[in-house]
Design a protein that fits this description.
Blueprint (H helix, E strand, L loop, with lengths): L36 E5 L7 H8 L1 H4 L2 E5 L8 H7 L5 E3 L1 H9 L4 E6 L1 E2 L8 E5 L7 H10 L2 E5 L5 H12 L7 E5 L2 H9 L5 E4 L4 H6 L3 E6 H5 L8 E5 H6 L1 H20 L1 H12 L10 E2 L11 H9 L21 H4 L43
Parallel strand pairs: 1-2, 7-8, 7-9
Antiparallel strand pairs: 3-11, 4-11, 5-12, 6-9, 6-10
Helix pairs in contact: 1-11
């Protein structure tokens, strides 16, 4: 039986039509017959606010129509933004840092999900029959052979946290064999013994937790203990933002409304995600989204620190947190502290515009000792 989805009352939303949009000239093809601006994005492969916005009709309320072009090959999202193949993308700050250091004019314009103990960013599982329940098991396995770990990509969230935890616990870095594969294939790969561990993102975490043949080892939040460890940002090209500032503002409003609705209605959000990914609702996990409606340095600095620790960028790289994002298109940041007009009764969490966060402090995770955890069976 399909689970009911809570319908968002349209009367509770303030619909802000796009101002200054013209359906003539070179942009005429960007509009539908009913006047909606078409925004191109890659098709989501894990849970994100797009699933919520699609189901609740939030795009149309802001004068937009979402067009999903398919799944991009890892590493091609930045060229796709620059070429105009896509207009917006979901990413982590480290990718924006690398892109801007390479000269790519892309910019973060909105918050995304965060890491927390209830809805962790990533959870790591092994086969139960492996006997591994904690770091000791990985140390023993590393003495025999390399450890195959499934990841959706390299040099980012998928491998860094687990890498840190394993190395802190005494597993040699040379013993780690990272196997890149899509999220949907990881559960099957672990079941067949093709890999030793998987790195699951929502909505697939709960399905892995529920599998009696898997053991949950640890989560990203238990490793890092920082919501920003899972912080993602929403990006566009500087060219698109300059040409279509009102579209960028509308996009941000869609995402913020989706964030707050999902956080406030987790059961209904799970039903939406279950339908989007063809998964049972009781086997679906969610992300927790930022309750701050604009970006600040604290969203980026932990990623800069981690990039330096992993030698992804040089310690003297000429870039700081504020270089990779802007709030100039964000109407919430401009009106910080005013009541939430989209969801009456909920005031803004922060009553003033954000101040600068502490500066970047270099840390090297290999020099730290972290408590070793044992997973419960």
């Amino acid at each position: 039986m399909k689970q009911p989805i809570l319908t968002l009352a349209l009367s509770s939303l303030l619909v802000l039509p796009l101002a200054g949009c013209k359906k003539t000239g070179k942009d005429a093809s960007r509009y539908t017959k009913d006047g909606l601006f078409i925004v191109h994005m890659q098709t989501p492969t894990v849970f994100c606010e797009n699933n919520i916005a699609d189901a609740l009709g939030l795009w149309k309320e802001e004068g937009l129509k979402a067009d999903y072009i398919g799944v991009l090959t890892p590493g091609t999202d930045v060229p796709a933004l620059l070429s105009g193949k896509i207009d917006f993308n979901n990413s982590h700050p480290n990718n924006i840092v690398k892109a801007r250091l390479a000269g790519a004019k892309i910019i973060a314009i909105s918050t995304g999900m965060i890491d927390d103990s209830v809805n962790p960013h990533i959870v790591y599982h092994v086969q139960k029959k492996s006997g591994i329940t904690g770091i000791e098991g990985f140390r023993e396995l590393a003495k025999k052979r390399k450890i195959k770990i499934a990841v959706s990509g390299r040099n980012g969230c998928a491998d860094w946290y687990f890498d840190e935890w394993l190395i802190r616990g005494g597993v040699p870095e040379a013993a780690l064999d990272w196997v890149v594969m899509p999220q949907k294939q990881q559960l099957e790969a672990l079941s067949k013994g093709l890999v030793d561990a998987i790195t699951s993102h929502p909505p697939f975490i709960k399905a892995a937790d529920a599998d009696p043949n898997f053991t949950r080892i640890i989560s990203s939040f238990e490793i890092v203990h920082n919501p920003a460890a899972g912080a993602s940002v929403r990006t566009t090209s500087e060219k698109f933002a300059k040409e279509h500032p009102e579209i960028v503002s509308a996009f941000i409003r869609v995402y913020v409304k989706a964030h707050e609705w999902s956080n406030a209605h987790p059961d209904s959000a799970k039903a939406i995600v279950a339908r989007a990914f063809n998964q049972p609702a009781d086997k679906v996990s969610l992300f927790t989204f930022s309750n701050r409606r604009w970006l600040n340095d604290s969203d980026v600095n932990p990623w800069l620190e981690r990039q330096i620790a992993h030698k992804d960028i040089k310690p003297d790289a000429k870039i700081k947190a504020a270089d990779i994002y802007t709030n100039k298109y964000n109407s919430y940041w401009k009106d910080a502290g005013k009541p939430n007009t989209f969801f009456p009764g909920q005031g803004a969490k922060t009553t003033k515009a954000p101040s600068k966060a502490p500066g970047l402090v270099e840390r090297t995770f290999r020099q730290k000792t972290a408590p070793l955890r044992t997973a419960s069976r």
